[in-house]
């Protein structure tokens, strides 16, 4: 006759089965492939090229080494978009419509990242805070860059692909004469965009202070003139009033008779 298992004994009997189910679920999650993408059997390569994606897909396997998101319609890279992808070695975001990259967008990627391709997008400005401590080889060419101090800081901190440096061209700049020129050439000619920006800021501050001071002086002059005019009108009004008649008292009458 089989012995009926009690509660603790039944739980001990089911624990291995529960462990197996959790392990199978974790393995399945780690090998899930984003919808519309192609993944290799080991999930090391995830290819989402030309899938008409408008945002970074979810459920990218954690073991991914190569991630291709090129030739889509992605416009924004939010913070934490590549969370948990610490093993990523190459990230291709080229040929999209990216015009906004939030601070910390790539910060959570691991030190294994060797290549980051942001070429052929719509990026005008990009702060170095988007990368954190990462220093992969980075491609930034064929973007409508606004050449200013932040781009100069990127040149000083990132490991930019040397073969594409001359293709990073100023679409606009802090001074119009720099537009249409390769940014690296301007830097080599001795132009310091951070100094130019500081001078521009100082001039703008001086102009603002001058305008404010002029407005204050104008108000004071207006206030004084208004008070003078008001005082003059009041004085003229007082002059126009008839003089009060002297009231004859009884004592004055008696003295006059005498």
Automatic annotation (TrEMBL):
The keyword Electron transport does not apply. It is found in: Membrane. Residues 32-66 form the LRRNT domain. GO terms for cellular component: membrane. InterPro entries: Leu-rich_rpt (IPR001611), Leu-rich_rpt_typical-subtyp (IPR003591), LRR_dom_sf (IPR032675), LRRNT (IPR000372). It is a single-pass membrane protein. Keywords: Leucine-rich repeat, Membrane, Repeat, Signal, Transmembrane, Transmembrane helix. Its main location: membrane. The keyword Glycoprotein does not apply. The chain crosses the membrane at residues 203-224. Residues 1-32 form the signal peptide. Belongs to the LRRC3 family. This is LRRNT domain-containing protein. It comes from Pleurodeles waltl (Iberian ribbed newt).
